[in-house]
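Readers outside the structure-tokenisation community will struggle with the description of the input data as it stands. What matters is that the chain and its backbone geometry are given together, residue for residue. For illustration, here is how one protein appears when written out as sequence plus structure tokens:

…
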Amino acid sequence: MLELRTLYFEDLAVGMKDGLSKTVSSQDVVGFAEITGDRNPIHLSEHFAARTPFGTRIAHGLYTAGLISAVLGTRLPGPGAVYISQNLRFRAPVRIGDTVEVTVEVVELVPEKLRARLSCLCAVSGEVVLEGEATVKVPSRQEADPRLPRLE
């Protein structure tokens, strides 16, 4: 089980990185289709997918993007971070059985708004499949515990 650590805005620094690795299973893709209602047969039917340029079933693009969300919510910045925005560029398909390596890096900190801008990258066997940027609001120590003295 993943141990959650809490990073506050004050703990962050430009250049900090974290990530995760996830092998995509058929069950993951079917579950994502069930949750979202996106039952496009390119994700669920091997027969249908075989007739596409991909030749086989592929994972939903937003399933892969969801792995970025997992990093943001559990690792960097972690619990308490709230999405403000995310842009995504899908560069290649993710197939059932692929292992996606997700890397998130702090590229800018905006202290007056307690926001962090993060570069987000997903790769399979070294090939970038998804890239983008996220902006998240990160709680300060004082927000987390109002009894702490305010940093001015």
